[in-house]
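Q: Fold this one first, please.
A: Sequence and structure below.
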Amino acid sequence: MIVLTGLALLSACSKKDNSGPSSQIRIDSITASVNPVVAYDTSVITVYATGDNLQYGWVANHGKIKGSGITVKYSACQSCRGLNTITCRVFNETGEVSDTIMVRVTPWHSK
């Protein structure tokens, strides 16, 4: 009887593991189709992530992001030359993760 009560208490107090594959979000990589990119040109930025019901948010410290979802277009003008940071936030109802990619913007030269 004491053994059964002890087993019942142990199972009632055990924590439920919600970290299974359906609740985990992971960013595997972020890639740029062109890097470095010449000012005024575009690069396609793609995030590869795993998880259920994922949503995406993108931000760049310089330049512009067009689009939404797993793939966006990044462009920057002449004044954004240098190494720029593009961050992707991947989230769902269980949490969020983010990662960055660095894209170098080089000067545009007229011919």
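Q: Good. Now the second chain.
A: Here it is, same layout.
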Amino acid sequence: MTFRPAAATGMPLDEVDTPCLILDLDAFERNLTRLPESLRGKSIRLRPHAKSHKCPEIALRQIALGAVGVCCQKVSEAEALVAGGVGDVLVANEVVGAAKLKRLAELAKQAQVAVCVDDAANIHDLDAAMRAAGVTLGVLIEIDVGAHRCGVVPGAPAVALARQIAACRNLRFAGLQAYQGAAQHVRKVADRREAIARAVGQVQTTTRMLAASGIPCDTVTGAGTGSYMFEAASGVYHELQAGSYIFMDADYARNEWTESGIPQFEHSLFVWTTVMSASAPDRAVVDAGLKASSVDSGMPRVADYSDVDYVKASDEHGVLQLKGATRFKVGDKLKLIPGHCDPTVNLYDWYVCIRNGRVEALWPITARGAVL
């Protein structure tokens, strides 16, 4: 069920109901253009990860600025994006189970779709599902380059899977998925750079072995907001999957950025919240708790107030500690910078898009809750 938005176009920000998700359009648009501009002159494609925003409206803006398509994590996310007009989607994840494979096959009739694998039995099932639907699907082998999540061991195990894909009638070997997700929030630039250098070495080993086996690898895809310039400079990556750059969250803000070559992106995404209690001189309580902002990467940060900390979250309450002269009264509204943008977005149905203190647009978060 999609609930009505907390605002209407033209409404002053102060009148927007809370809690809601607001998008500062000026900062968002600067971020949107800053990343492709940072890649100017480099022979590399951009395929932003749409799990960050779950919104076809944003995906189409990224594509208009040169992205070849987008990534997503779930078949249901891909369905929402394709229904919204996106024509090229990589499901940068493994898809398992007959029901999901059937839906993936149907989606491949509507758009350019690819998927990742790291298992021989999954390849067999994918081929059978695509054959039953009469389609051919691009398949990338995911290799574990340090995140220790999904992914086959680089080198010979990946080559064996590539041979299996090449022998399938309805699958096409489309390259390697090599995302080092664990490196994205490594704080020091030198440590992040070193982690990506190790990943690059593992990719090089695998592509050399593929070439020696007569299997061309036209695409190596991966990278995130915290590291993408390192992958871009490596000479082995063809596509970059950065996603959070459009929003930036409190966790990314804790990274070091100087000398990384990565532009300083701005916070553009906020949870708009109201003070609901101010009964103690050193404390205020807002109406944005666990159901309004994800805390898996730490508490949200209070924007515009250096002497106020968000220190505790319960289901519907957020407790602020007032450390300096700032005081709030009941009814005051303020912005929170989410600790982690992706799961926070997934809590809302709408972006309330703000420019010059007024609501300019309302964008539906079409793939909200798309977990199948």
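Q: Anything worth noting on the second one?
A: DSSP finds ten helices and 17 strands in the chain.
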